[in-house]
Amino acid sequence: MHITQLNRECLLHLFSFLDKNTRKNLAKTCHKLLEVFQDPLLWSLLNFHSPVELKKDNFLLGPALKHLSICWYSERVKVCNIEDWRKNSFQKDFCKRHENTVSDFLLDVCNRCPNLLSLTLSGCGHVTDDCILELLKNCPNLKSLKLENCVQITDHTLEAVTLHGASLRMLHVDFCRNVTQAGLERVREKCPSVMLRAERSANMIPDSKPEKKLMLEKASRKVVQL
């Protein structure tokens, strides 16, 4: 039996086991498989492991999307998560190339995926509070928001959760060094039903301008001398 002789339900089941590239390659072979590839039921879950993958045309975004994960585990993450004033020209140039890649993609999700239930971001150093705010506003059914090592996330995101995260039941802000203990306490107070986790976040040294860091270092040295 040829694969195209299978009914739509069977083909969708088979496609569900394939990665995005394989699905796309199969879709190029005939109209029937292209229709399966374009079926919204196939795209309720999307996982990405690099910002480069977000620019490919091997997936579909739409109202059927329920679960989205963008987890970037690479040495390059360390470069993107360095404070801007500490980066050399090469590092700045590298970051500039994909500075808006994830944010632009998430804004597209805001416009096209209102039924999103869970979002996981890890190592996305360029994602901002404004981006998460728009997601919370446009995806009212969001139940799980996991942010790990997203260094530009601050207490503004936590405030957005208290204002627009009515459906939220799980919030992780692990290793987000610009989140404060005060911000976390506000979430616990205003959203007691949210399971909050913030491993290392409020205990890490937050970003600050070079002159502020210098003042802190001088003050520390004075204390040691005394």
Automatic annotation (TrEMBL):
Keyword RNA-binding part of the UniProt annotation: no
Pfam families in the cross-refs: DUF7885
Matching PANTHER family: MITOCHONDRIAL ATP SYNTHASE COUPLING FACTOR B
Metal-binding among keywords: no
One of the record's GO cellular component terms: cytoplasm
Signal peptide as annotated in the record: none
Protein name per Swiss-Prot or TrEMBL: FXL22 protein
Keywords, ordered alphabetically: Ubl conjugation pathway
Ranges for domain F-box/LRR-repeat protein 15-like leucin rich repeat: 95-186
